[in-house]
Amino acid sequence: MFKKSLIFSLTVFFTLMIITSLIKNKTRNLEKEIKKINKEVAFLEKQLSDAEIDYIYLSSPKKLKKYLSTFNKEKYLSFDHSRIFFSTEQFLKHSLKEAKSF
Hints:
It is a single chain. By secondary structure, the protein is mainly alpha-helical. The chain contains three helices and no strands. It has helices spanning 2-58, 61-70, 88-101. It is rod-shaped and about 100 Å long. The model has no long low-confidence stretch (mean pLDDT 82).
């Protein structure tokens, strides 16, 4: 009687110990993947921020006048007002509408 309960207790203990170590390893791997993805997201957000700054700087009226005076006005082509976006959110909304229409 004593042997059966001892063997059962030890079996349950070792089974739970193995399951716990497996779960901890899977959790550790998930945490590593989350850190990796967070780094990628931070890098992409920085790139987006840099692109927005470049866009704002390059599309300022002062810069555009300078470019127009530098280039020949014959080579200058104007955009339709529908192709000018004031923010990246506006551009993304527009591109999503175009994607849905396909």
